[in-house]
User: Fold this.
Amino acid sequence: MRFVPIVLTVLALLAAPARATYSIVARDPKTGELGVAVQSHWFSVGAIVTWAEGGVGVVATQANAEPGYGPRALALLRAGKSAREALDELLAKDPEREVRQVAIVDARGTVAAHTGKQTIAFAGHQTGAGYSAQANIMADAKVWPAMARAFESASGPLAERLLAALDAAQAAGGDIRGQQSAALLIVGPERSDEPWRSVRLNLRVDDSPRPLVELRRLYGIARAYNRANDGDALTAARKFPEAAAAYLDAARLAPDNDELQAWAAFAQAAAGHADEAAATMRKIFVSSPGWKALLPRLHASDSPGVPILQKKLGAR
Assistant:
């Protein structure tokens, strides 16, 4: 009878974990960066799906997710296995492989992906040069091809291409149950015994009605703070005009962030623009009064512009 498979499918949907997920793993051939981005109707998806190590590889493990695929795959890649060899070895040992969905890209850009035969429709994956897009419990089968097209046609840094793929997935219908969390993880090309040093971005939205919008907002803030880090390095090298330019870039990227505005002001003062810097600090004192109390506690070692502004604003 025709209603039997329909009933069984509905029961399977109700019994399965609510991990409607789409993700993409990729390597940037120009920079060697490795990255993974994901959105799911599940709380804190980044803690489950996303795994990466600089100079080693990147993994997405989803559907009836087994988080162990992440660290185990990276260990196999670290030992010299290819993405395909690592995935095949893990699947061979997993009696529940037909309810898994896993994708791996290694440091050479080799790709391997698996969508189990019992993952809940619509589910599938599409691989290309240095990437794999995969999804399960989708509104229809257009989602992962849309991700692939968006990634291939996008330009710019790897993070922005991955975000474009997520947006395309949602525009194509996305998760049948909606949205909840998202994550973006990027590591550099360098391999190290201290792998945390290669992490370029590790952004997570654990619970939100619009996780992709929030993820893009966090990405913008991360770009600003990365530029501020450039300013720190330039200040340490006593390249004050260049440091001021970096801090001002950071402040422009996050115009509502008083922290970045303040450090831009210190750099401006150190570069010889004390009047402009003081005007900026006076505005900050209004929006964030804590900075007025903090300024007298800072030292020249924090920024050479600090004593200049302390004197200019009578904060000593």
About this structure: Residues 8-209 form a domain with the Glutamine Phosphoribosylpyrophosphate, subunit 1, domain 1 fold (CATH 3.60.20.10). The longest strand covers residues 20-27. The CA atoms of residues 14 and 64 lie 13 Å apart. Residues 211-236 form the longest helix (26 residues).
